[in-house]
Amino acid sequence: MPESLEIPLSDLNEWLTQETTSIVKPLRADAKELLEDIHEKLEDLLESCDKLLDDAEKEIAKGSRKTYRRAKALHKLAGKFADLVEEVSIPEEISGESLHQTREQIGKTLKTIGKERAKWFRAISPYFIISRRRFDVTLKRADDSFQDLTNFLSDDYAEAAAAEGVSSKIEELRDSLEELKKIEKAKENRKRRRELVEKKIAETQQKLQMIHTKDEVVELVQINERIKELRGKVKRELRHLQKPFLKFQTLASNPGYSLLPEEIKKLDQYLTNPFKALATEKEGYPLLGSILQKIDAALDNKKLKLKSSRLRKAKDQINRILNKNSLLSLHQNCSEAFSKKHELSTSGAISKTRDKRSELQDRLKDLQTRKRLLKARDARFEKKHKEAGTRVNEQKRALEKLASKLSGKSVQIVID
Q1: pLDDT of 94 above 50
Q2: 101: nearest Cα among 112, 89, 113, 114
Q3: What is the predicted pLDDT for the residue at 218?
Q4: In a designed cystine with 298, which of 138, 209, 303, 307 is the match (CB 3.0 to 4.6 A)?
């Protein structure tokens, strides 16, 4: 396999022009001869049009009833033919583009003349037979010359046209390369923006972590853990009283078992938040004691009905709370934990820390949203980048194949 020639893209057009001169130059000379021939045939056709006009004018001047209308039609038709032929322009510069444009123009002209001829010559017959025959001969010669040009462009000139089209394909490749460079530059910018967002996310997370390690925050976390533990203990200690609390809440609306407003509020709190209810009791938890005494009396008077097992457990728990002070230690622990949390939560340091943490969390959320949106857009952008790269490679390979075919050498294009 012959070694490939490496040709820079910027030099390809000039190099290939030199390589294909021996092919293109003779073909252009042949094309020029064909154009001169068809120009000659069109001049002959124009003369035959003039002859039709001259004959028509002479017949019109005679004023014969038999030929007058036909002569008028022929005069109009011949004038139209002459105008169409005169509009045809033969190019000075020979190229695939100019030749194809000329072929299109001549083909359209001859097709129009042919249609009009077939339509009107039958109406004019049998008059002006000699002029019409001369016109048909010149039209046939022009059409034959046109067919020669068409065949030449389809077959012989195809290689020259391909060589001439190289410059446009080079420009297409350059445009695609420029687009690819812009996309790659934009890709780098997008990468920097994404890295900046990721850096800000890491910094924000670090700041949040630093907040979480502050003494006040650590202490508040520890208190919250302590309260969580105490909630469980309160719930266990009062578990047998939840049913009596609920039933007594309904019974308390009846006379003889009414509760004071603060007792009603506290009873509701023991049902919804037992820890807070106990923690906010005064020393000796007097409200709980008063409520339990009334519940105990209602149980003794059978105003509160419970299953025997529930009743026994409830009575036992009431006895331990009222007579054995079983909740004293737990109440003290709950009160201390509740007070400490309130103290820490309302302190200036914690309040400032909470505001700062809230601000950082909002910022982190915004940054994470930006990162997600950038990632989604990057996926679409990556597809665009891939398509641009594929287009460049395909155009480069097609141009290398064409250059190799035209030059007869193995060509590899170097992007400069």
Answers
A1: yes
A2: 89
A3: 60
A4: 303
Residue 8 dihedral angles phi and psi, to the nearest 5°: -60, 145
pLDDT in tens, 255-300: 667 788 898 899 999 999 999 999 999 999 999 999 999 888 888 8
C-alpha distance from residue 299 to each of 57, 256, 308, 345 (Å): 137, 13, 11, 42
Contact 160, 333 (CB under 8 A): no
Contact 17, 49 (CB under 8 A): no
- Output the six-digit token pair for 124: 């004019």
Confidence of residue 1 (pLDDT cuts 50, 70, 90): very low
Mean pLDDT for all residues in the chain: 85
3-state helix, strand, coil in the chain (%, to 5): 85, 0, 15
271: Cβ contacts below 8 Å, ≥ 6 apart: 242, 245, 246, 249
In b/e form, how buried is each residue of 121-156, taking b as 16+ CB within 10 angstroms?
beebeebbeebbebbeebbebbbebbeebeebbeee
Report the chain's terminal Cα–Cα distance, integer Å: 26
Stated pTM of the model: 0.46
